[in-house]
Records
---
Amino acid sequence: ATVWIKPETAGLNTVLGVFADEPAGVLWVCSNASGGRNGAPVVGETTLKAFLLKDATLKASYPFPGGGACNDIAVAKDGTAYATDTSGGRVLRLKKGAAALDVWSSDQTLLATADGIALLDDGAVYVNSVGQSTLMRIPVNKDGSAGAIVKLEPSRPLQGPDGMRTVSGKTMLLVEGGRLDEVTIN
């Protein structure tokens, strides 16, 4: 079924990423504040929004702590949602049932221009950097905290990686440089 969300009535500003969590019946949307350049007023706030897939009703809105640029979303099997903050070099987390996002992983160098995000069966969170053309793996510790960020070495250099989506246990699709790549993590 097609669900139409009217930006003007849904409180959406600049939308970068969307993710349909079909098992939960939720459409996650990255809505970003706009303006702020050359003296233009800032309009809205950066939030991760959750809409019901069945009828496009706004379920909840989660502001980004300290602002930032919400870019992409992935949802773990346990219902935890992760979102990248491109301008803040962070990955934010919303635990299932939580009322607010928390900063799950932050690194101004490795996660600078964080963009696409995906989760694979190894339980790790994979994040790319559009500005650095890199791909990182962030393990999820047993207590749910972020492990040490590991910069991966792909079989060929990446060129401006963007969105990512999980395909199967250790494979994801990655958009870069005008093409769609299939990436398998070994």
---
Amino acid sequence: MLAVPLPGAEEALANATYEALLWSLSRPGQLRSLPGTDPAQAHALIIASLLDRECSVFCADPLLMPLVARTGAMLTELPRAGFAFLGGHAELAMLDELACGSDLYPDDGATALLEVRHNGGQGLRLSGPGIDGAITVQIDGLPAGFWEKRRELIRYPMGFELYLIDGLQLMGLPRSTTVEVL
């Protein structure tokens, strides 16, 4: 008889977080709850679930730096980062530095994680794969011109993924999602 080890509590939490991250990218514009009860732990859950020694990371938030360092991930400059934890420190110029991949390797595009406020602020109409027709959302807390700059930079299949985090609420926007400012 084959014995399979049962996941511990930490592994189960990382698995549930990873599932929420994948689900949010496959259903752009829909909010997904991260596991747990403490909104202050959202980034810690994501870091534990996504990062390991083979990841390259840029971290703009000094409060997250110890969590990132504990994973063993390689800290690097923004243009070389596979993951960019921008927190609430996103500046428009940072988007210009995000890796967008190349014609041969579009999968080298970065994944950026930003803190926002859902259900308030600027109205957006989203369309593309994973969205039935179009969906309207409201997002606040990003620099002026953010969505226009994103549109300029993404030349699908090249581009970058976005995770927009508000406490334990998560919204994923893959590079294939078209964003229209309302």
---
Amino acid sequence: MKYFLILLLCISPLSLNAANSENEIKAAVLGKLSHFVKYKSQINSDEFIITVFQDATFAKLLKEKYNNKSINHKNVLVKNAHTPKELSSPDLLYIGKVPQEVQYQLIKYAQSNNLLTISEESGFAQRGGIIQLYFVSLKIRFKINLNAAKKSNLKISSSLLSLATIVKGETK
């Protein structure tokens, strides 16, 4: 599994334009990252719920990619949220481009509900998000905030940690 993740992280599709290529890579990586995260308080549901906050284009791509697929032996359901009030209790909360104050609100909500948070916004992991994605020459990299994962009662595999940059950060 570790070698598959390394191979996936090194893929750089050349036939797509950069923006589409990055979104395709992010979509594939979200599902793979989920296999390396263990919830200490397992959510009893037949569905693995991914909520995308304020990125309708990415939510649509995820719906297409994960239609009739599973993550962690659960059918995938992708939801799109535009306001914090629309959040339920997903397994994974992907946060699009939002102001820092909204990011802090979402991170606090996620920690109190034991959610995995992922974003590609600069500084996300330092502000208390769990996984921050970023690209270098169309290759995906990620930062992980272990303190944030602990606050959300999540355990991240050492295989994944060995490939990530570990950051420290607090929420407000």
---
Amino acid sequence: MELNNNAKKTYIQILIDTLEKKFNILDEILQITTRQQNLIDEKNFDEDEFMNTISLKEKLINNLSELDHGFELVYEHVREELKENSDIYKSEITSLKELVRKITDLSISLQALEKRNKTNLEAVLSKKRKEIGKARLSNETVANYYKTMTGLQSSNAYFYDKKN
């Protein structure tokens, strides 16, 4: 199917708009990831709020996937036109390249922050596990003490060697 010039320009504009939306969504994800970093760094880690940020990011990532899929479909329609007539679409191609560069830079920043957050979150969770383990041991110790003191746990201490 041969596209007319208006359709080609429309498709190219859709590509530009899609990349702008992708940049905005990535920026939102970066802000949420920064919020996650702040939550991890707080003295009292708020698990519920952290889980909320994960849900928000999941929705945005799904939106990104849809945008990427749509971008690929539209690009298929105009790829040859852009290659063959790059001089006609020079400004549009420049805009596309600039947006791709910005998206790439933002993605790299986001990946670096995600990696730091993962390491810090693992440390926080490890600390929490240790605290839970200590609390469980402490609770067991207290429970055993009270059982012993109330006579609920038999004690071998009253058996003596009665050899005279």
